[in-house]
UniProtKB/TrEMBL annotation:
Domain of life of the source: Bacteria
Record's signal peptide: none
UniProt-listed PANTHER family: GNAT-FAMILY ACETYLTRANSFERASE (PTHR43415:SF3), SPERMIDINE N(1)-ACETYLTRANSFERASE (PTHR43415)
Domain N-acetyltransferase: start-end pairs: 9-174
Protein name, entry field: GCN5-related N-acetyltransferase
Species for this entry: Cellulophaga algicola (strain DSM 14237 / IC166 / ACAM 630)
One Gene Ontology molecular-function label: acyltransferase activity, transferring groups other than amino-acyl groups
Length: 174
């Protein structure tokens, strides 16, 4: 079994006590263009989501984990989505909620932990991510961890009356 604990952060399953944190992230309009969200989530809807979050990745094709500091402070979320066990691949997304927690290596370590878990425990062959071309911090993060740029989806996301390109990155495990 692969450890989900690093030097700065650890990853854990969502708990009912994470409702307010989840509500804050899901309703932050600044990240809606990344997540594809167009309307706010109610606490009731998120409570129902939390009631079912324990379901197996093989059943729901998604795994969402909290990124926690070693003092148990929740600082972000990391997801595997579109899990495809037959082809041993999934998408990955990561968010650090607060500006004060960004650029401290938390997302990088969380992503390294999730990559190790994906490779060893889930026996995945690859993971991929989609990053908007103007999200330089995410591009730097994923490239620094060995993700390769493999394509550009032109005019993929409509944002504030303009279209943005989305870059597809991929990491194949050896």
């Amino acid at each position: 079994m692969y450890s989900l604990k690093g030097q700065k952060v650890y990853l854990r399953a969502l708990e009912p006590s994470d409702l307010d944190f989840l509500y804050q992230i899901e309703n932050a309009t600044a990240v809606w263009e990344i997540s594809g969200t167009t309307t706010p989530y109610s606490k009731q809807v998120l409570e129902m989501y939390l009631e079912n979050v324990h379901r197996d990745i093989y059943e729901v094709k998604q795994l969402r984990l909290c990124i926690c500091l070693l003092d148990n402070t929740v600082v972000g979320l990391i997801d595997l989505f579109d899990f495809d066990p037959k082809n041993r691949k999934a998408g990955v997304g990561v968010i650090i909620a607060s500006e004060k927690h960004r650029n401290n290596g938390f997302a990088a370590e969380a992503l390294e932990l999730l990559c190790g878990y994906s490779r060893v425990t889930l026996e995945m062959h690859q993971i991929y991510c989609n990053i908007l071309e103007d999200n330089h911090a995410s591009i730097h993060l994923f490239e620094s961890l060995g993700f390769e740029k493999i394509g550009i989806k032109k005019d993929w996301i409509s944002s504030k009356g303009k279209f943005k390109n989305e870059i597809l990155y991929q990491k194949i495990f050896n």
